[in-house]
Amino acid sequence: LLYKPVDRVTRSTLVLHDLLKHTPVSHPDHPLLQDALRISQNFLSSINEEITPRRQSMTVKKGEVSVPAF
């Protein structure tokens, strides 16, 4: 359930990217679409930067055994 909001932002970012591809540069919404895309990409980048160190600390290398501390 916690990934659902991030997944929604990811899908919206992809839609914005496609919409921007098909919007002429002369269209008044083009700069607004660029800003929206930049904001959503920055948001996703910050989420990835925050999650990556946690994910790496929880990863067990092949052949190693993880023993819980008591």
Automatic annotation (TrEMBL):
Listed InterPro entries: Abr/Bcr, DBL_dom_sf, DH_dom
GO cellular component: membrane
PROSITE patterns: DH_2
Any matching Pfam family: RhoGEF
Domain DH stretches: 1-50
MF (Gene Ontology): GTPase activator activity; guanyl-nucleotide exchange factor activity
The name this protein goes by in its record: BCR protein
Native source organism of the sequence: Neodrepanis coruscans (wattled asity)
Lineage of the organism: Eukaryota, Metazoa, Chordata, Craniata, Vertebrata
Gene assigned in the entry: Bcr
